[in-house]
TrEMBL record:
Belongs to the MurCDEF family. The keyword Ligase applies. Residues 326-456 form the Mur ligase C-terminal domain. It is an enzyme of class 6 (ligase). GO terms for biological process: cell division; cell wall organization; peptidoglycan biosynthetic process; regulation of cell shape. Pathway: Cell wall biogenesis; peptidoglycan biosynthesis. It comes from the Bacteria. ATP binds at G124, T125, H126, G127, K128, T129, T130. It catalyses: UDP-N-acetyl-alpha-D-muramate + L-alanine + ATP = UDP-N-acetyl-alpha-D-muramoyl-L-alanine + ADP + phosphate + H(+). The keyword Cell cycle applies. Residues 122-303 form the Mur ligase central domain. This is UDP-N-acetylmuramate--L-alanine ligase. GO terms for cellular component: cytoplasm. The gene is murC.
Length: 473
């Protein structure tokens, strides 16, 4: 099933030869734009504000406008790329439709880039970015030079996308809007299946149907790699095996897993994992903390071996992974207090990261500055978010980050605060980022860890907290 590497390296779809990206600074959009620029396309786009990502795109030759205006759409644009977050009244999208310029969804653009390669797509409610990153780094360390498109920037090699010379293309597959139905992977990974993305899925049954559709699109002779530990993932395995269209290989700590994690031993902010793979024990280190991340590494190991990479070589290469930005990323230390950033915004992710951090905190306390993400998610999961925050020693909760959503009457961060207090948490509200940073810094003593947590702009508050810490005590 090998692809022509020269084709995968140079091929640009006709309607993406002169693309215009609306929201080019987004994690998913910028990755596709970078790959197209590296393949020689004349990339242009717009974003709401200036950013490091915008600067990186300009460094690759792309034109990036700040703000949205119909005048930004070039006369010779061959296609306009959008994500599900772009509203129909966006002036650039309106202009594209009026001029008859093809409008391409982000997922269709990514699918076109993967077409001539050996695609490996990673899906699941939590852990996609980490697992995709682990694969990209490990395969790169082995000299395979994969292409990749990831929803976050790697610590190493420092980008969310790369147009490699190898035949493998590793991609994060977004189930939130069903856009992962556009991909045809040779190997698909499903880390977990849970009810999330409430604006697009009304029930678990809809979620199962969506993941089954994703599984059905695996190329003939390919494989689905899926967790044996999560109830939802096990139900997906049952349904996919019942259909009999694709081979399934499970992994995890469950006794019936095809590839079983025998032990996960924490060592501060790292862990050592031993797996039973094809009848042989294999031990390797992962330089990120916690059971959740160790199991992501096991998923990456299984997926890579399904592409023919020797297991012992891949296991060693996984040890070169040092993390991804916003996934338990150390932002700095002041007054003997470490500030760490977490992208966790769903209760399962929040719990996993807090448990992982607890293992590396020693005798120190954990202080969380949490920003809820989306009104719809808060409405459905406020109680569970509050219960997760009870795992910290103290928390500050900011107002909801709306992202693409309009407010929902009665849905505020107070719902989470009430649930956290009911679960025994020490929690306070902050009306602004500056207030939240001040409160978090004031709660922290030498030896403590402060965790900024959420998918919004709470990530920007790490330096503010660090600046306030010397005055905190």
């Amino acid at each position: 099933m090998a692809a022509d590497p020269s084709r995968s390296r140079r091929s640009v779809p006709e309607d993406l030869a002169r693309p215009h990206f609306i929201g080019i600074g987004g994690a998913g959009m910028s990755g596709i734009a970078k790959i197209l620029a590296q393949r020689g396309a004349r990339v242009e786009g717009s974003d709401a504000r200036e950013s490091v990502t915008a600067a990186a795109l300009r460094g690759l030759g792309a034109t990036v406008h700040i703000g949205h205006d119909a005048a930004h759409l070039a006369a010779d644009a061959t296609g306009v790329v959008v994500s599900s977050a772009i509203r129909e009244n966006n002036p650039e999208l309106v202009a594209a439709r009026e001029r008859g310029i093809p409008v391409v969804h982000r997922s269709d653009a990514l699918a076109a880039l993967m077409d001539a390669c050996r695609p490996l797509a990673v899906a699941g409610t939590h852990g996609k970015t980490t697992t995709t990153s682990m694969l990209a780094v490990a395969l790169g360390a082995l000299g395979l030079d994969p292409s990749y498109a990831i929803g976050g920037d790697l610590d190493e090699p420092g980008s969310n996308a790369h147009n490699g010379r190898g035949e493998i293309f590793v991609a994060e597959a977004d189930e939130s809007d069903r856009s992962f139905h556009q991909y045809e992977p040779e190997v698909a990974v499903v880390l977990n299946v849970e009810l999330d993305h409430h604006a697009n899925y009304a029930s678990m049954e809809e979620i199962y149907d969506s993941f089954v559709t994703f599984s059905d699109r695996i190329r003939p002779g390919g494989v689905l790699v899926v967790s044996a530990d999560h109830e939802g993932a096990r139900e997906l395995t049952r349904r996919v095996r019942e259909r009999g269209r694709v081979r399934v290989r499970t992994y995890g700590e469950a006794e019936d897993a095809d590839v079983r994690a025998l032990s996960i031993t924490p060592h501060g902010l790292t862990s050592e994992t031993t797996v039973l793979l094809d009848g042989e024990e294999l031990t390797f280190a992962v330089f990120v903390p916690g059971r959740h991340y160790a199991l992501n590494a096991v998923a990456a190991l299984v997926a890579g071996t399904e592409l023919g990479v020797p297991a012992d070589e891949l296991a060693k290469a996984l040890g070169t992974y040092t993390g991804v930005r916003r996934r338990l990323q150390l932002k700095g230390e002041a007054n003997s207090v470490q500030v760490i950033d977490s992208y966790a915004h769903h209760p399962t992710e929040m719990t996993a990261d807090l448990e992982a951090i607890r293992g590396g905190a020693g005798d120190g306390r954990i202080v969380v500055l949490f920003q809820p993400h989306l009104f719809s998610r808060t409405r459905e999961l406020a109680t569970e978010m509050g219960e997760s925050l009870a795992l910290a020693d103290a928390s500050v909760v900011l107002d909801i980050y709306p992202a693409r959503e309009d407010p929902i009457p009665g849905v505020t961060s107070e719902l989470i605060i009430e649930a956290a207090r009911a679960a025994g948490a020490d929690v306070r509200h902050a009306a602004s980022g500056a207030e939240g940073a001040e409160l978090a810094a004031g709660m922290a003593a030498p030896g403590d860890l402060v965790l900024t947590m959420g998918a919004g702009d709470v990530t920007e508050l790490g330096p503010d907290i660090l600046a306030r810490l010397p005055q905190a005590r």
